[in-house]
Design brief:
By secondary structure, this protein is α+β, with helices and mostly antiparallel strands. Helices cover 34% and strands 9% of the residues.
């Protein structure tokens, strides 16, 4: 399902300077990558995730996401892909929740984070996983690719 699959881009020039900036920015809870169409944002982020071997939930936004129920449906698909061991289904935005979308959204993302954040850094026998540095929390990245595709008047925002 390409909507929730990170694109694998081959034969690219690795942007070491930009990777370094992204490494620094990952200390923040949110990183926003912006630029004009075709400048390489998707390529940069996808190649960064690949190079750093990061856990990722990728979501390719399009005009259809202006329907908030569609967005939550496909987010559920992305969550299944990102955390396949969790068997409990994530809730759908059904009509009874439409009266209070902000509360539904809060609870939805609370459930999402509980599935993606481990309570402690991943360990291997004898200590931290080899690819983690001391103090690294592991963590994950959520990518909303092509955010600009949803009309500004949409309830999505």
């Amino acid at each position: 399902m390409s909507k929730v699959t990170r694109p694998i881009i081959t034969r690219i020039f690795i942007r070491k300077r930009l990777f370094g900036l992204l490494d620094q920015m990952r200390k923040q809870p949110v990183v926003w990558v912006s630029g004009p169409p075709g400048c390489g944002k998707t390529t940069l982020v996808s190649s960064y995730i690949e190079a750093r071997k990061l856990l990722c939930l990728w979501y390719q936004i399009d005009e259809g996401d202006s329907d908030i129920a569609t967005f939550f449906y496909y987010m559920g698909q992305a969550i299944k892909r990102a955390s396949p061991r969790k068997k409990k289904p994530i809730p759908f935005l059904t009509p009874e929740y439409l009266q209070d979308v902000p509360t539904f959204t809060f609870r939805y993302f609370e459930e999402l984070y509980s599935r993606l954040i481990s309570p402690h850094p991943p360990l291997e026998k004898g200590g931290l996983r080899g690819d983690l540095k001391k103090g690294d929390k592991g963590g994950f990245i959520i990518v909303f690719d092509n955010y600009q595709e949803v009309p500004s008047e949409s309830s999505f925002h």
